[in-house]
Amino acid sequence: MRKNLLQVQGLTVGFKQEGKQRVQAVSNVSFKIAKGETLGLVGESGCGKSTIARAIMQLPRPTSGRIFFDGEDLTQVGKKRLQQLRPRFQMIFQDSISSLNPRRNIIDTLTAPLKVIGKTTPGEKRHRALEMMASVGIDPGACHLRPFQFSGGQCQRIQIARALMANPELLICDEPVSSLDVSVQAQIINLLETLKKEHQLTMLFISHDLAVVKNICDRVVVMYLGKLCEKAPCEKLYKTHHHPYTRALLSAIPKPNPGLLPSINLRAGDLPSPVDPPSGCRFRTRCPRAEKRCAHKEPVFQEIEPGHHVACHFPIV
Ligand code: SF4
Q: What CA–CA distance (Å, rounded) separates 212 from 298?
């Protein structure tokens, strides 16, 4: 059995909104990622996926819960230790262009993370940066250019190169392809798969689209309004999922043969506000299978078969 590199236990993240109302963006979320595994985290925009990613990075520290990275609880370590550990877990963001400093050329952008590590000469830093540019498919000859001189897809490649400069073990990818054209999306996903093998990475891959995570993840976690709905090995989730929300997300994927899977459409209405989530099951206001019980009792996230967890009173069978 592979050792867990990341273990998130009972993670809750709350913050005050401008109008002074407290929002619980993530509520009691737990999952593990084994060394070398890629876990997909999927849900609609605003469901708390990025909040989880930032909480793992300790940006900011979560309200409660524990986050173990290679056995050390990041929520308990001091600032100095966190700084020492940080090169080992890196993150790439959705908006690659704005995540790069517009005033820095690419070589400075790529060598900056090595300053934290120290013990590297300027020549070694430059050599590593040029090597990394080549490995993500960017011409090293373009190292003096600035971010605005590259396309969105190229900026995402540069962002990936920057994240890998410190030789991390865990890479958190927050919607890394959602702002890119479909053809470029496939290239970036292929690149991430190649780099994962080359650098023996463990990955948390966040997306709003179940179709995107299908080819890159080993297991998938589906979340809705700050809570987990379903967690299963990737292949299983696509074939025999049990949560109505997972079915609805899958129904939204255009299929070559639409007759294969009975689809579920969400009941009309927007995603409820996390400021005042529905009682009982948070999905009940949009769930076509909701019954009385769903309004009164919150479903428990439980294992219904080995490795497959669901939070639903009336799962699809
Ligand atoms: S618990 Fe009820 S409302 Fe929630 S997903 Fe299941 S059937 Fe739908």
A: 30
* CA dist 168 → 50, 89, 122, 221, 263 (Å): 20, 5, 20, 23, 40
pLDDT for 259 beyond 80: no
Domains of the chain: 4-102+167-310 (3.40.50.300)
The pLDDT tens digits for 11-48 are 999 987 766 678 889 999 999 999 999 999 999 988 99
Q: Please give the distance, rounded to the nearest whole angstrom, from the Cα atom of residue 284 to the centre of ligand 1.
A: 6
Question: Which two three-digit tokens encode residue 113?
Answer: 């993370």
241 CB within 6 A, ligand 1: no
Residue 72 Cα, ligand 1 centroid: separation in angstroms? 36
Which residues, 6+ apart, have CB-to-CB distance to 102 below 8 Å? 146, 147, 148
Instruction: Give 244 Cα–ligand 1 centroid separation in angstroms.
Output: 7
